[in-house]
Amino acid sequence: MQPDEIDCLIRLIASEDLPGKHLEVGTARGITLCAMVQALRSPHDPAFVVVDNMRYFPDQIRLIRDNLERFGVDPDSIEFRIGDSRKVFRKAQEAGDSFDAQAGSLLALRKRGESATPEVPVIDRLWAMMWSIVLRFRK
Ligand SMILES: C[S@@+](CC[C@H](N)C(=O)[O-])C[C@H]1O[C@@H](n2cnc3c(N)ncnc32)[C@H](O)[C@@H]1O
C-alpha cells in the first residue's frame, strides 16, 4: 500500500472504537499490521487476526514476529491463521467468526448486518482464481 493509503486506513481504525476482532488478510512483513495495532483505541485480545499463507518471503513468520517486536507490538498478541485464505475463511465461517474491521487491500469494509446476497459473486472468485494461478507462475 502507498503511504497515503496506509494513513487513510490508520485514521479509519483510530476514529472508531470497534470492539470486535480485527482482521488483516495478507500481511507481507507485518509493517502495516504494526501501525494498525498501534492505532487501536482500546486493547483487543487478540490484537489482530492475520490470515496469510506465509509463502511471500523465506521464513516469513519469523520476519513478521521480528518486525512486530521492533515496533513494540507483542507478537503473541496476534492470532496468526496460516493457510490459504479461502480455506481459512471457510473454517472461520463454520466457526461463526465475525470481524469488525477488515483490511488487506485499500478497501476497508464495515459490515453492519447480514447480506442478502454473497458479497463476492462467483464470477469475481473465478477471475481471482485465474489470476492467482497466472501470478504464481510469473513469480
Ligand atoms: C502484497 S502482500 C500484502 C501487503 C500488506 N498488506 C501491506 O500493507 O504491506 C500479500 C500477502 O498476501 C499473502 N497471500 C497471497 N495470497 C494468499 C492466499 N491465497 N492466502 C493467504 N495469504 C495469501 C502473501 O503471503 C503476502 O504476505
Task: Describe the structure in your own words.
The protein is α/β, with parallel strands linked by helices and 139 residues long. The protein has five helices and four strands. α1 (3-15) runs parallel beside α2. The radius of gyration is 15 Å and the shape is globular. Residues 101-106 have low confidence and may be disordered. The structure holds S-adenosylmethionine.
What is the N-to-C order of secondary-structure elements (H for helix, E for strand)? HEHEHEHEH
Alpha carbon gyration radius: 15 Å
Helix content: 40-55%
Q: CATH homologous superfamily name?
A: Vaccinia Virus protein VP39
| Total discrete domains | 1
Give the distinct bound molecules: S-adenosylmethionine
Largest beta sheet, briefly? 4 strands, parallel
CATH C-level label:
Alpha Beta
Query: Spans of 5+ residues with little confidence (pLDDT < 50)?
Result: 101-106
Please identify, by name, the CATH architecture. 3-Layer(aba) Sandwich
Separate helix tally: 5
Distance between the termini: 19 Å
Give the strand line-up of the largest sheet: 3-2-1-4
Proportion of beta-strand residues: 5-15%
Task: Report the count of strand segments.
Answer: 4
Write down the CATH topology: Rossmann fold
Main structural class: alpha/beta
Q: Report the principal-axis shape.
A: globular
Mean pLDDT: 86
